[in-house]
Amino acid sequence: MKGLTEAMVLTSVSMRDDFLYPWTTCGREDFDRVVELLLQRRHQPGPGHAQAVDGRGGDEGIDVDVTLPGGAITTIYQLKYFPEGFSGGWSKTRRAQIKSSFQSAMAHQPRSWVLVIPARPTPKERKWVRSLVGKQPVKVEILGRDKLDRMLAESPDILRMLMKGPLTEALRLAGSEHQALSTPADVENAAIDFGQRVNARSAFWGANVIVGADGSVTQQLVPKRPDAMEHEPLSLKPQFRDDEIGRSAQDQWDELHGYGGPGIAIGAEALASVEMDGPMWFAQDLTDAAVGVGPINMSRNMEIELRVANRAGATLQSLGGRSRLSFGQRGKRMEVELECGLDAVFKMPNGSQEGTAMFISKLDGHRVTSVADALTFMDWFTLHSNLRLEVWVDGKFIWVFELPDSAFGDLAPGATIRQLVDDLCVLSRHFSVSFRLPHELTWAQREEIRKCRLVIDGKVVEERGYQELAVTLNGSTSVAFEETIHSEAMAVVVETDLHYLVQGHKLPLRAKVFHPRARVTEPDAVLDALRDGTAAGKSVRIRGADDSPFRVFLAEDHRRDPDEPLAVEPLGIVGAEASA
């Protein structure tokens, strides 16, 4: 339960000349520091960013500037610690300083220029400052101590920080300096004392209290004993707003109390008010509050098994996972998280033999072998009839559901994902490596998976990585061999270790690389080396006659008929047109 309280500042006006901060006696250094803090706070929401400029006097007429994201200066603040103002005996020197700073600042072409002083300006001083504008398109203002006080009142945390020194000294004289919270130990001790007083309010309920930097107060009530609600009942009665957000929150609230569950959080934007009913320490009415309710009648985590069964009671498939059971005024509810990436919510109303089942698909990131089980599970109910879903917990039969053909709606993925899952499952079994269904996949990665799977299946695939082969001559030659050097119809077969990179795994295959029509790229140089006896150890480059890539297939494949032609198998990736 969270009550959002706004800090309230009360400002009274009297005939006394009292100010929140001793602007006229604080000294120039403290004056500059406090004003810079207030200006940064004023412009913190944006769009401009306020920052102090180092170097008084040599600052090009800028003490604090406000810049836009692009770097343009919109406002320049000039700080002058003139407690007595700039009239009378102070007129000549101080007005010259102000005028000089103004003229330097105009080189930056700001939209506005603000003179900040610790005194209350006189009418004549205001008039003189405004006369500086001349014909320049700039707005000129004076920020005196009355406006500075107003800014301090709007930032009570800065005021508390400024007054900490005098307050600490006063508390020290009273023997209570720790109340100033000047050290971490003071804060810790004060928090412990506050917590003890909060938890002393009730023998049955404690509370975790968090005070936010924005002044919000969060109370999380914690029962001190299991029967706390029986001995000291507490209740929340939210009044929801009559709009889409409020009605949605109302449905969540009714569902939680109707069937129990893991709890909900309702934001203040959905609530008109909250009535808190109970003992004096708890009871109150809130009009600006957010509410969070923890688990209601929720069991521990339990092992669960979902079985697909036919009318004869035979099990066709079984999936395992974890579940939690809850109950409320209207019936029971079970939340299920299956290991295959499917989640489900089962509801059984009181006094009814028919419940409802809702499934949620979260297949991405799960092992592809488990995802394949999820696809099979969904297909049973999509493609077949007269099947039922049995729910077993801890080895005991709990419920049975008759699922309609539309139970999974659009959850079952299409042919593109199914082919990817099938390819990865083949690779997983062949290499004994666990792969997961990726959240996203580049086209190059998809091709790599598909090619590896086809090679495993005994197919021949074009491998663009092999546009050229390098072979080493042993120096021997013959007339027949030399005649093939200039031929474009020579067949080349090389056995080598081939690797495919899939999800960070370098998968090895012993493969043969070949081309039915190949040619030597530098035939004359090769013939010369063969004929003059210098060919031994020479590297020769071979390319396809039509510059097409080489083909690859498994080196040891007993399934292949040696008389079968080595025809290239198309990749056949489903959805290739959409991804190309």
Salient structural properties:
single chain, 580 residues, alpha+beta, Trna Endonuclease, Chain: A, domain 1, 4 domains, seven-stranded antiparallel beta sheet, six-stranded antiparallel beta sheet, 15 helices, Restriction endonuclease
Describe what this molecule looks like in 3D.
It is a single chain. The chain is α+β, with helices and mostly antiparallel strands. The chain folds into 4 domains: 28-162, Trna Endonuclease, Chain: A, domain 1; 189-285, no CATH class; 302-413, no CATH class; 420-579, no CATH class. Helices cover 29% and strands 29% of the residues. The chain has 15 helices and 26 strands. The strands form 5 sheets. Strands 18-17-16-15-14-19-20 form a 7-stranded antiparallel beta sheet. Strands 21, 22, 23, 24, 25 and 26 form a 6-stranded antiparallel beta sheet that branches. Helix 10 (368-383) packs across helix 11 and helix 11 crosses helix 12 (443-456). The longest helix is centred in the C-terminal third of the chain and has 17 residues, at 415-431. The model is unreliable at 1-17 (pLDDT under 50). This is Restriction endonuclease. It comes from Myceligenerans crystallogenes.
